[in-house]
Write a structure and sequence with these properties.
Length: about 190
């Protein structure tokens, strides 16, 4: 009986080796969220999951940046922009969380490490220097958000996410316009 098992086990055709460089994020199994992951989107298995994870992480970052503006800004327009970020990203974050919960997509509960580094650097600044640097980062972030949402609008075939994107994009564009205007004023 043991000999039969060994012969059967040894005679099976082994699977060919896979070149790791040919793997994409979409071909890898999903992993549990881990705050030590520098980019949670690396764990996504579909375009929908990738978008949800990236949008959620960016949303969290924008809320923290809004709070940081409240604490460190000198310019009143920068502080008001921070309030706007908190308000808009809290609202869109809730909608995003509702969709991801319905679709059983796990999104980060914390800001990814590489995003947190940017926040940490910015948090060391105060006053006019903070205002100037903050608005450069804010304009850049809003453009990245828009790029993410516009790409997802083209790529995703999910009606719930597409409706979310269509509803959220105008607010992101308005935030970008505000960020650019304030940045140019400073």
């Amino acid at each position: 009986m043991i000999v039969f098992f060994m012969i059967t086990a040894c005679s099976t055709n082994p699977k060919p080796a896979v070149d790791a460089s040919s793997l994409s994020a979409d071909s890898l199994p999903a992993q549990q969220p881990d705050s030590n992951i520098s980019d949670p989107a690396d764990t996504a298995t579909t375009k929908v999951s990738t978008f949800a994870i990236k949008a959620s992480a960016r949303n969290l970052m924008n809320m923290v940046l809004g709070q940081l503006a409240q604490e460190n800004a000198q310019n009143e327009r920068v502080k008001k922009f921070g309030v706007l970020l908190i308000k808009e990203h809290t609202k869109s974050g809730k909608k995003l969380m509702d969709i991801t919960a319905d679709k059983h997509i796990m999104v980060p509960a914390e800001i990814p490490a590489r995003m947190q580094l940017r926040i940490n650097e910015l948090s060391k600044l105060k006053g006019a220097e903070f205002d100037r640097r903050y608005m450069i980062i804010a304009a850049d972030n809003q453009q990245k958000d828009i790029n993410l949402f516009e790409k997802a609008a083209k790529d995703l075939k999910d009606s719930a996410f597409n409706a979310f994107i269509v509803k959220t994009l105008p607010a992101l564009k308005m935030q970008l316009d505000s960020a650019k205007s304030i940045k140019n004023e400073l």
